[in-house]
Amino acid sequence: MRFGRLFSVYSVLGVIILAFSLSVIFSFSNLRRYEALARTELTDTTWILAQAEIELIRFLYALDLYMYGEPDVVRKEDVVAHMEIFWSRLPLFLEGREGRRLARVGDAQDTARSALKTLARLEPAITGLRREDQDGYRVLRAELHGLLAPLKRTLIDAREWQEASAGIRTERLDRIYAEMIIAAIGILVSTGCLVLLLLHEIRLAHRAQMAEKRALARLSEAIESFSDGFSLFDKDDRLVLFNRGYREMFAETADLLVPGVSFETLARARVRKGLIPDAVGREEEWIRERMRRHNNPGSDFEVRQHDGKWFRLSERR
Fold it and tell me: What is the pLDDT of residues 40-71, one digit of tens each?
């Protein structure tokens, strides 16, 4: 019986190895199609630049409508929203895979850094702009419009870089054919060993996962025994777990207490519902102060609630 089970397992593994080997062989004829995918990656990089330019134009258009259009057409909140959308595009120039690509495109990253600094400097003036402040509007409009030219130049540089990179990729593609022939031989030999190793690793991973679940269950039981409220946030400042005391402390926003919600979301919800008397009339300022204290925890502090209660809060990294 045991031999039959082993035979079945090895038969399945043999079929997997054969199928994988055939897929490698057939991939030679399909390799040219993947060149289009490489071109798409380059196009995505230029798309980021083009999208940033479009969002800046929309931002300027919203600002113009706010100053000269009908009051009900565009509100200040719409202008700020367009500013934030444009603002959110700029970090893509500097971070991740696209950031590494754009580092090779002209002054793309310098343009993004300069735009970020300009937005950070102008944000208070934009959020506080009034329709009757024509002089302030003209100054803001001129500075923001000055961001367009560098973006356009960067987009042109990116398209030229895209064309050059596509040519280089085509040359490399021919070399890949020869390299794949050599690699296929090694794959046929190593795949069998790899599958067996993966099966072993899967068993180990399953055991580790079960141990992690048991540890998490013990941790949950431990924090539930605390008389005080307790919560744990991960490195991205998102809620991982909390106890019953924490839910009772923040019962008014208990519907938001689910794993994955950010600390700032919870803080804004309490402010929005008027649960923090000290935040009334200065909501954004209070939230900034709260997030600054949250991100740089020090000594314990107290917060007054709407019902007159005081919470003593202790935060640690």
Answer: 555 667 777 788 888 889 888 888 888 887 77
Q: How far is CA 304 from CA 167, 246, 252, 276, in A?
A: 65, 16, 15, 7
Let me know how long the chain is.
317
The Cα–Cα gap between 175 and 191 comes to 23
Question: Coil, helix or strand for 163?
Answer: helix
The sign one gets for the Cα dihedral 108, 112, 118, 123 is positive
Segment 69-88 shows an average pLDDT of: 84
Rounded CA-CA distance 283/289 in Å is 10
* Inter-residue contact 181 to 43 (CB < 8 Å): no
Q: What is the DSSP letter of 304?
A: E
In this structure, what are the phi and psi dihedrals at residue 240, rounded to the nearest 5 degrees?
-105, -55
pTM for the structure as a whole: 0.41
pLDDT, tens only, 170-208: 666 666 666 667 766 766 666 667 566 556 666 776 787
Contact 63, 140 (CB under 8 A): yes
Q: Which phi-psi region, left, alpha or beta, contains residue 281 (left: φ > 0; alpha: ψ -120 to 50)?
A: left
Mean confidence (pLDDT) of the chain: 79
Q: Residue 286 is encoded by which pair of tokens?
A: 């209070």
DSSP state of 238: B
| HSE-up of residue 221 (Cα within 13 Å, Cβ side) | 6
Distance between CA 291 and CA 305 in Å, rounded? 17
